[in-house]
Write a structure and sequence with these properties.
253 residues, 38% helix, alpha/beta, globular, 17% strand, 7 helices
Protein backbone atom coordinates (compact mmCIF):
# COMPACT_ATOMS: atom_id res chain seq x y z
CA UNK A 1 0.00 0.00 0.00
CA UNK A 2 1.17 3.50 -0.80
CA UNK A 3 0.13 6.38 1.46
CA UNK A 4 0.91 10.01 0.61
CA UNK A 5 0.11 12.76 3.11
CA UNK A 6 -0.20 16.27 1.67
CA UNK A 7 0.00 19.25 4.00
CA UNK A 8 1.16 22.86 3.88
CA UNK A 9 0.23 26.50 4.33
CA UNK A 10 -3.25 27.75 3.61
CA UNK A 11 -3.66 28.35 -0.10
CA UNK A 12 -0.39 26.59 -1.00
CA UNK A 13 -1.99 24.12 -3.43
CA UNK A 14 -2.79 21.03 -1.36
CA UNK A 15 -6.11 20.42 -3.12
CA UNK A 16 -4.44 20.83 -6.51
CA UNK A 17 -1.85 18.24 -5.50
CA UNK A 18 -4.59 15.82 -4.48
CA UNK A 19 -6.36 16.31 -7.82
CA UNK A 20 -3.15 15.37 -9.63
CA UNK A 21 -2.76 12.22 -7.54
CA UNK A 22 -6.41 11.32 -8.06
CA UNK A 23 -5.88 11.54 -11.82
CA UNK A 24 -3.13 8.92 -11.64
CA UNK A 25 -5.04 6.40 -9.55
CA UNK A 26 -4.78 7.46 -5.92
CA UNK A 27 -7.80 7.32 -3.62
CA UNK A 28 -7.84 10.87 -2.24
CA UNK A 29 -9.34 12.32 0.92
CA UNK A 30 -9.17 16.08 1.49
CA UNK A 31 -9.40 18.11 4.71
CA UNK A 32 -8.96 15.15 7.05
CA UNK A 33 -8.60 16.15 10.72
CA UNK A 34 -5.28 14.97 12.13
CA UNK A 35 -7.02 13.07 14.94
CA UNK A 36 -8.73 10.77 12.40
CA UNK A 37 -5.54 9.79 10.56
CA UNK A 38 -4.54 6.77 12.74
CA UNK A 39 -8.03 5.26 12.49
CA UNK A 40 -8.10 5.73 8.73
CA UNK A 41 -4.70 4.13 8.28
CA UNK A 42 -5.82 1.19 10.39
CA UNK A 43 -8.88 0.71 8.17
CA UNK A 44 -6.75 0.90 5.04
CA UNK A 45 -4.44 -1.81 6.36
CA UNK A 46 -7.37 -4.17 6.78
CA UNK A 47 -7.60 -4.42 2.98
CA UNK A 48 -4.03 -5.78 2.76
CA UNK A 49 -3.85 -4.86 -0.91
CA UNK A 50 -0.37 -3.84 -2.01
CA UNK A 51 -1.80 -2.12 -5.08
CA UNK A 52 -3.95 0.33 -3.14
CA UNK A 53 -2.75 3.92 -3.24
CA UNK A 54 -4.08 6.64 -0.93
CA UNK A 55 -3.41 10.37 -0.74
CA UNK A 56 -4.67 12.35 2.24
CA UNK A 57 -4.86 16.12 2.60
CA UNK A 58 -4.23 17.12 6.20
CA UNK A 59 -5.62 20.40 7.52
CA UNK A 60 -4.24 21.58 10.83
CA UNK A 61 -6.52 24.60 10.59
CA UNK A 62 -9.37 25.38 8.24
CA UNK A 63 -8.08 26.68 4.88
CA UNK A 64 -9.17 30.16 3.84
CA UNK A 65 -10.58 31.12 0.49
CA UNK A 66 -8.37 33.41 -1.57
CA UNK A 67 -11.36 35.47 -2.63
CA UNK A 68 -14.12 35.63 -0.03
CA UNK A 69 -12.87 34.38 3.32
CA UNK A 70 -10.14 35.73 5.54
CA UNK A 71 -7.23 33.70 6.85
CA UNK A 72 -8.44 31.65 9.83
CA UNK A 73 -5.73 32.99 12.14
CA UNK A 74 -6.32 36.65 11.29
CA UNK A 75 -8.63 38.93 13.28
CA UNK A 76 -8.98 42.58 14.20
CA UNK A 77 -5.71 42.40 16.14
CA UNK A 78 -3.78 40.15 13.74
CA UNK A 79 -2.78 41.14 10.22
CA UNK A 80 -2.64 38.71 7.31
CA UNK A 81 1.17 38.73 7.40
CA UNK A 82 1.15 37.91 11.12
CA UNK A 83 -1.43 35.15 10.58
CA UNK A 84 0.69 33.54 7.86
CA UNK A 85 3.76 33.73 10.11
CA UNK A 86 1.81 32.01 12.89
CA UNK A 87 0.68 29.29 10.52
CA UNK A 88 4.28 28.73 9.36
CA UNK A 89 5.30 28.28 13.00
CA UNK A 90 2.43 25.84 13.54
CA UNK A 91 3.47 23.77 10.52
CA UNK A 92 7.20 23.58 11.34
CA UNK A 93 7.01 20.06 12.89
CA UNK A 94 5.20 18.77 9.77
CA UNK A 95 7.68 20.44 7.45
CA UNK A 96 10.67 19.08 9.37
CA UNK A 97 9.40 15.49 9.07
CA UNK A 98 8.37 15.70 5.42
CA UNK A 99 10.01 13.46 2.82
CA UNK A 100 9.56 16.12 0.12
CA UNK A 101 9.00 19.89 0.29
CA UNK A 102 7.63 21.92 -2.62
CA UNK A 103 7.78 25.70 -2.58
CA UNK A 104 4.67 26.66 -4.55
CA UNK A 105 4.90 30.43 -4.01
CA UNK A 106 6.35 31.10 -7.48
CA UNK A 107 4.67 28.26 -9.38
CA UNK A 108 1.76 28.55 -11.75
CA UNK A 109 -1.07 26.05 -11.38
CA UNK A 110 0.26 23.99 -14.31
CA UNK A 111 3.83 24.04 -12.96
CA UNK A 112 2.62 22.85 -9.56
CA UNK A 113 0.68 19.99 -11.14
CA UNK A 114 3.69 18.89 -13.20
CA UNK A 115 6.02 19.08 -10.21
CA UNK A 116 3.73 17.06 -7.94
CA UNK A 117 3.32 14.39 -10.60
CA UNK A 118 7.06 14.20 -11.26
CA UNK A 119 8.06 13.97 -7.60
CA UNK A 120 5.35 11.71 -6.22
CA UNK A 121 4.42 9.59 -9.23
CA UNK A 122 7.26 9.75 -11.70
CA UNK A 123 10.20 9.17 -9.43
CA UNK A 124 9.74 5.45 -8.89
CA UNK A 125 12.58 4.57 -11.24
CA UNK A 126 16.26 4.73 -10.23
CA UNK A 127 17.05 7.87 -12.22
CA UNK A 128 17.42 11.26 -10.58
CA UNK A 129 15.56 14.33 -11.84
CA UNK A 130 17.80 17.40 -12.07
CA UNK A 131 16.36 20.91 -12.19
CA UNK A 132 18.47 23.97 -13.00
CA UNK A 133 16.60 27.03 -11.74
CA UNK A 134 17.67 30.61 -12.44
CA UNK A 135 16.60 33.33 -10.02
CA UNK A 136 17.28 36.89 -8.93
CA UNK A 137 18.74 37.49 -5.49
CA UNK A 138 16.69 40.67 -5.16
CA UNK A 139 13.56 38.50 -5.32
CA UNK A 140 14.79 36.07 -2.64
CA UNK A 141 16.43 32.66 -2.59
CA UNK A 142 14.47 29.66 -3.90
CA UNK A 143 13.25 27.74 -0.87
CA UNK A 144 13.52 24.38 -2.63
CA UNK A 145 17.16 24.79 -3.78
CA UNK A 146 19.62 22.05 -2.83
CA UNK A 147 22.68 23.82 -4.27
CA UNK A 148 23.05 27.55 -4.94
CA UNK A 149 25.64 29.26 -7.17
CA UNK A 150 26.09 33.05 -7.19
CA UNK A 151 26.77 34.67 -10.60
CA UNK A 152 26.58 38.31 -9.45
CA UNK A 153 30.34 38.76 -9.82
CA UNK A 154 30.15 38.22 -13.61
CA UNK A 155 29.88 41.01 -16.22
CA UNK A 156 26.27 42.22 -16.27
CA UNK A 157 24.45 42.72 -19.61
CA UNK A 158 22.08 45.04 -17.76
CA UNK A 159 24.63 47.82 -18.18
CA UNK A 160 24.58 47.42 -21.97
CA UNK A 161 21.71 49.55 -23.28
CA UNK A 162 21.03 47.26 -26.22
CA UNK A 163 20.94 44.16 -23.99
CA UNK A 164 19.04 45.48 -20.97
CA UNK A 165 15.56 44.51 -22.16
CA UNK A 166 16.66 41.07 -23.38
CA UNK A 167 17.22 37.87 -21.41
CA UNK A 168 19.84 35.15 -21.18
CA UNK A 169 17.90 33.18 -23.80
CA UNK A 170 18.35 35.85 -26.48
CA UNK A 171 21.26 35.46 -28.88
CA UNK A 172 22.81 38.93 -28.37
CA UNK A 173 23.04 38.27 -24.62
CA UNK A 174 24.35 34.75 -25.24
CA UNK A 175 27.04 36.13 -27.54
CA UNK A 176 28.03 38.79 -25.01
CA UNK A 177 28.33 36.39 -22.08
CA UNK A 178 30.03 33.72 -24.19
CA UNK A 179 32.75 36.24 -25.07
CA UNK A 180 33.51 37.04 -21.44
CA UNK A 181 36.36 35.00 -19.99
CA UNK A 182 35.05 35.08 -16.42
CA UNK A 183 31.69 33.66 -17.53
CA UNK A 184 33.40 30.72 -19.23
CA UNK A 185 35.54 30.08 -16.17
CA UNK A 186 32.56 30.02 -13.81
CA UNK A 187 30.60 27.78 -16.17
CA UNK A 188 33.54 25.37 -16.36
CA UNK A 189 33.96 25.34 -12.58
CA UNK A 190 30.27 24.64 -11.94
CA UNK A 191 30.28 21.90 -14.57
CA UNK A 192 33.31 20.29 -12.95
CA UNK A 193 31.79 20.40 -9.48
CA UNK A 194 28.48 18.94 -10.60
CA UNK A 195 30.08 16.31 -12.84
CA UNK A 196 31.91 15.04 -9.78
CA UNK A 197 29.12 15.20 -7.22
CA UNK A 198 25.82 14.60 -9.05
CA UNK A 199 26.61 10.88 -9.48
CA UNK A 200 27.20 10.72 -5.72
CA UNK A 201 23.78 12.22 -5.04
CA UNK A 202 22.19 9.74 -7.44
CA UNK A 203 24.06 6.83 -5.86
CA UNK A 204 22.65 7.96 -2.50
CA UNK A 205 19.13 7.31 -3.85
CA UNK A 206 18.22 10.95 -4.36
CA UNK A 207 15.14 11.12 -6.57
CA UNK A 208 15.51 14.80 -7.45
CA UNK A 209 17.90 17.73 -6.95
CA UNK A 210 17.42 21.45 -7.61
CA UNK A 211 20.47 23.53 -8.54
CA UNK A 212 19.78 27.25 -8.31
CA UNK A 213 21.85 29.79 -10.24
CA UNK A 214 21.38 33.37 -9.10
CA UNK A 215 22.25 36.82 -10.40
CA UNK A 216 20.90 40.21 -9.37
CA UNK A 217 17.56 40.18 -11.19
CA UNK A 218 17.33 36.66 -12.62
CA UNK A 219 17.17 37.92 -16.19
CA UNK A 220 20.57 37.58 -17.88
CA UNK A 221 23.54 35.79 -16.29
CA UNK A 222 21.68 33.19 -14.24
CA UNK A 223 19.43 32.36 -17.21
CA UNK A 224 22.40 31.94 -19.54
CA UNK A 225 24.25 29.68 -17.11
CA UNK A 226 21.18 27.57 -16.32
CA UNK A 227 20.48 27.01 -20.01
CA UNK A 228 24.10 26.07 -20.67
CA UNK A 229 24.22 23.66 -17.73
CA UNK A 230 20.93 22.02 -18.71
CA UNK A 231 22.20 21.47 -22.25
CA UNK A 232 25.48 20.03 -20.98
CA UNK A 233 24.10 17.61 -18.39
CA UNK A 234 21.28 16.38 -20.64
CA UNK A 235 24.05 14.36 -22.31
CA UNK A 236 24.85 12.64 -19.00
CA UNK A 237 21.46 12.26 -17.26
CA UNK A 238 18.07 11.23 -18.61
CA UNK A 239 15.90 13.76 -16.75
CA UNK A 240 17.35 17.29 -16.76
CA UNK A 241 15.06 20.32 -16.73
CA UNK A 242 15.49 24.09 -16.62
CA UNK A 243 13.21 26.74 -15.09
CA UNK A 244 13.62 30.50 -14.94
CA UNK A 245 11.79 31.79 -11.88
CA UNK A 246 12.24 35.53 -12.33
CA UNK A 247 12.97 35.95 -16.05
CA UNK A 248 9.86 38.05 -16.73
CA UNK A 249 9.75 40.14 -13.58
CA UNK A 250 11.74 42.96 -15.18
CA UNK A 251 8.73 43.61 -17.43
CA UNK A 252 6.65 44.59 -14.43
CA UNK A 253 9.17 46.78 -12.60
Amino acid sequence: MQLVIVSGLSGSGKTTALHVLEDVGYNCIDNLPVSLLPALVAQIHIHKDDKLKFAIGIELIQRFSETRRKHPLSDSNTSLAEAIASEQKLLEPIRDSADQIIDSSHLTLHELRDLVKARVVGRQESTMAILFESFGFKHGLPVNADLVFDARCLPNPHWKADLRSLTGKDQPVIDFLHSEKAVGEMLQDIRGYLARWLPRYQANNRSYITIAIGCTGGQHRSVYLSEALQAYFTKEFSDVQVRHRDINKHKHT
